[in-house]
Write a structure and sequence with these properties.
- The chain contains 21 helices and 17 strands.
- By secondary structure, it is an alpha/beta fold.
- Helix 3 runs antiparallel to helix 4, helix 3 crosses helix 5 and helix 6 runs antiparallel to helix 13.
Length: about 500
């Protein structure tokens, strides 16, 4: 009972209730206008036609248009006003201005005197074209002189972090979607306290919604009292604010600009299986050392200053010229709703489209738009061995239902799908033909590809690519392969539920 009372009194519940109250008031106001039904109906019908025309000509992905169109056409007296209020409001224009400011920060980067793309283009022009696209749209150079180590479990990720943090001499930057008190974060925190006492600069940034139910209220003030600089990304406010949709889903740890970590692992105990929530938690990460860490440092600083409303960054104090023996080519990149291009999605799609032999993907959520579905199906039908691993035990049952609603089309095209039977797989990776791999934070779902700030590391001809493939195949051995017959046996009611959820999946 005490836990229930504490939960009901939490900032998450109170804020959510206030937002719900505002939504109810808005619906009541719209309903009150219905007392002037003939006039209101005529106005909303005209508005509905204009909204549908606007949607038809809007550049947004068709998957996002569909839920709005259904709402506007089915219930115009509610759908049209909601679209105008939330999709075409001053608030939307304010968000656009903030994103323009962030793009300014993204363009302000340190120069990379070396351009490996020239050499890559000579040996593999098709791959070079994909790397070039990421470089131009995400301001993400390709680096040599960088070593990459694949970390196939959250436990190994944690061990590597605990080995590297004590070596810090100048600064440590941490940026995570979730932080939570427990063995993992508290162990890191103990080391960070010692580093602050030694004069090391420590900055911590975490997402408010990601961590709101994980840490006490005003946790940032507590961390600041320990000597850390802290930024809480996009604080949850009790208002109907569309900007709440945009979350910092990145996982970045940078040490002195010479060591960088990313992957699916957040700083909470389920990621290292100290606590069990959905069976065994399978996650992955990657550690790089050398020149490529420069981009990860920039990525952290850009969102740090953006979250604090600052438009100028001086990278000089955080630059490093450390070089490691080249292990292929490394391209750290970042993506987010502020960019003009869907860099992460088009990077994935580009690699899917150029695959010749095989394509291995791990993702906790498989919620695809038409373009991504077509890319997977085309690759499989072209003879590419396409395999996808998803969880068997879901963390969100509704989202898992949507994930499974994508299976049938893929299976019918020859894609092989495996569910990780020991529990929940949170890893996000793509491996193509044994020569390109991407490891990072980007899920194959609408939130990651369209709404969240994300990051990843693209590796070409690196020795760690073989490790990514090996881990995929070993993980596959612990999975149940899904067949089209299994999907058909679910019955018509389940199929209808999946169809409805799939239509509205872009809004989940």
């Amino acid at each position: 009972m005490r836990k229930i009372v504490k939960f009901l009194q939490s900032r998450l519940v109170i804020t959510a209730l206030l937002i719900l109250l505002q939504a109810v008031v808005l619906m009541v106001l719209i309903g009150a206008l219905a007392s002037y039904f003939p006039v209101y109906y005529a106005v909303t019908m005209v508005a509905a036609v204009l909204v549908v025309m606007d949607l038809a000509n809007d550049k947004m992905n068709p998957s996002f248009k569909l839920p709005w169109m259904i709402l506007v056409i089915a219930v115009p007296i509610i759908g049209a006003p909601l679209y105008i209020l939330f999709a075409k409001s001053k608030q939307t224009r304010r968000i656009s201005k903030r994103f323009r400011n962030y793009r300014t920060l993204m363009r302000n980067t340190l120069p990379n005197p070396d351009d490996p793309l020239v050499d890559i283009a000579k040996e593999d022009p098709v791959v070079a074209r994909q790397l070039s696209y990421v470089e131009r749209t995400a301001y993400a150079p390709v680096y040599r002189n960088t070593d990459a180590v694949y970390l196939p479990t959250g436990e190994e990720y944690f061990d590597a972090v605990m080995r590297e943090i004590p070596k810090a001499k100048k600064f440590i930057f941490l940026e995570y979607f979730i932080i939570e008190e427990g063995k993992m974060f508290n162990s890191i925190l103990d080391v960070l306290k010692k580093k602050v006492e030694e004069g090391v600069e420590v900055r911590i940034m975490y997402d408010d919604i990601g961590s709101i139910s994980k840490v006490p209220s005003k946790y940032d003030k507590y961390l600041e009292s320990l000597g850390f600089q802290v930024s809480v990304f996009n604080r949850m406010k009790p208002s109907l604010d569309a900007f709440l949709n945009y979350r910092d889903h990145r996982k970045i740890l940078v040490i002195d600009g010479v060591v960088g970590f990313t992957g699916g692992v957040n700083l909470a105990d389920e990621y290292i299986n100290e606590v069990e929530r959905f069976g065994h938690w399978k996650d992955t990460g990657i550690m790089i050392k050398g020149e490529g860490v420069t981009k990860m440092t920039e990525t952290f600083l850009q969102l740090w200053h953006f979250s604090r409303g600052e438009l100028k960054i001086d990278y000089k104090d955080y630059a490093s010229d450390m070089k490691c023996e080249s292990d292929g080519f490394i391209q750290p990149f970042a993506d987010g709703p502020s960019t003009d291009d869907l860099t992460a999605e088009l990077c994935y799609m580009g690699l899917i489209n150029i695959a010749v032999d095989h394509l291995y993907v791990t993702t906790p959520y498989l919620i695809l738009d038409n373009e991504m579905t077509t890319a997977f199906c085309h690759a499989a039908r072209s003879g590419v061995d396409v395999r996808i691993i998803t969880p068997h035990i879901p963390d969100k049952k509704t989202v898992m239902a949507v994930t499974r609603s994508n299976y049938r089309t893929l299976l019918d095209s020859g894609v092989r799908i495996f569910e990780y039977t020991p529990g929940f797989i949170h890893a996000k990776s793509l491996c193509m033909d044994g020569k390109v791999a991407v490891v990072g934070t980007v899920n194959f779902d609408f939130r990651s590809l369209y709404l969240h700030f994300e990051n990843g590391i693209l590796c070409y001809k690196s020795s760690c690519i073989a490790d990514v493939e090996r881990d995929f195949l070993e993980t596959q051995e612990k999975c149940q392969e899904i067949t089209a017959d299994q999907i058909r046996k679910k019955g018509p009611v389940y199929s209808l539920l999946q169809a409805v959820l799939k239509v509205f999946s872009p809004l989940m």
